[in-house]
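Researcher: We're teaching a course module on how sequence relates to structure. For the next exercise, students receive a sequence and then see the predicted structure as tokens, so they can try to spot secondary structure elements on their own. Here is the exercise chain.
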Amino acid sequence: MRSHPREKSGRNDPCPCGSGKKYKQCCLSNTDLAFPGPKTLDTPWSRQRDASDRITADLLRVLKRDFGDATLDAWADFNQDDDPVPLNEMPHEVSIFSPYVLFEWDPERPLRRSAQKPKGGVVVQAYLKKSANRLSALEHLILEQAIARPVSFYEIVRVHPGYGAVLRDLLIGEETEIEEHSGSEMMRSGDVLYAQIWILPEVATSGRLAPIPIPPDRKVEIIKLRAQLQRKIKRQNRELAVADLTRYADEIRAVYLDIRDALSKPPKLQNTDGEPFLSHKIHFNTQSAQSTFDALAPLAWGVDKEALLEEAERNPDDSLRSIKFAWLKKGNKMHPTWESTVLGHLKIFGKTLLVEVNSANRAKRIREEIEKRLGSQATHVGTETETPEQIIKQAKRRKALHGAEEEIDQDDLMRDPEIRRQIEAEVQKQVEGWVRTKIPALGGCTPLQAVADPDGREMAEALLQGWERQNEAPGSAGIVRPDINALRRLLDLPVKTESPIK
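Model: And here is the predicted structure for the students to work with:
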């Protein structure tokens, strides 16, 4: 087991290639020319990487030899769950779980962490008992950082791809410029990292890093965590410090786990009332088309019968044959600017009534309305339901059979400048109504109310950044992308003048 750094040639030593020249005049200078960017031969960054790799290999051997049977317990402790998803189903989590096991995990640690300087977990303590006197000064420093530095949430402020980035600790505000070569290629300004930073002589770098970057809109949970931690130390009349983050490591990791799990789940589809999406087709037999229409026409709030009948189909004797109309209600709680909300669609044809709604609650309400208004004139025949996944599968089948004709038609429509202007104006009007909408993520406040508080301003900005990310997704000509800067102006937040740095 190698525990000392391997020997490296000094600048004035004979070059190891055997040329007889000094190292600085031979291979070192050639390397500098071939690789003008960050040096990987003998730099503070490469030295700490080599030392870190050696320590990790040694610790993994200790883990396997002395604690191999306890890995499942450590995984449960890391996830703060007695029955977590198995690690083999989340292999990407090894990059953040492995350092936890090697440097932090201690099954005997009390529930409340001490305010004293951390001593490390059982694996690293077992390693130090046998190997401490054989470690180099750099290896001692790395172990000290791995044990004592907090794992926190870092916002990416600036990126220098291939070299490093400037990170800001969202909990204590500390900014650090780190050197990170291949990792920085994947970083993007505005994202958040759950990570540990090592501050070593001549270099700062990431000591551990969660595998998935956290998108900007999830900063809201982290800002709420910061407020909670600040309340915990309020009596001490000071700001959060590095030592506090170590003490509250479990609370910080709990927020990471919540965000991780939320990001790994498929999006939860909801209708405009915030109800879980589940398509219902409700079938009734009725006495006649006319009597059914007369009883149910008032369900179209704000539209009179004459207007509805303009779209009706009639029999040769002028009696009503079929008609379609929307079930409407006044306003919308989630979108205050909306004049009305479409709750479902009714289709009457002959003695048949078909109602389509998109939630279980709406299905229950409309059935009660129909049975109340029609009484014995309506008989419920049956109800069909479809999940979002089933609907998507059906849509894919139809597209495979009929091509993308509908999409093409919509795109052609949106290429008409006048039509596009009207649709964009309507979308923007609805989007701008968001600033006066109560948002659960903002604690039930509207964005206009939230920005009166510093934390609220940061949360609102995070939500807007997330919205901008969604706007960047490629789409067809029919996609309308709202102006997010208009929302910033309404909220008196800084307006962005250029695209986010990738």
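Model: If you want an answer key for the exercise: The first strand starts at residue 151 and ends at 160. The two ends are 42 Å apart (CA to CA).
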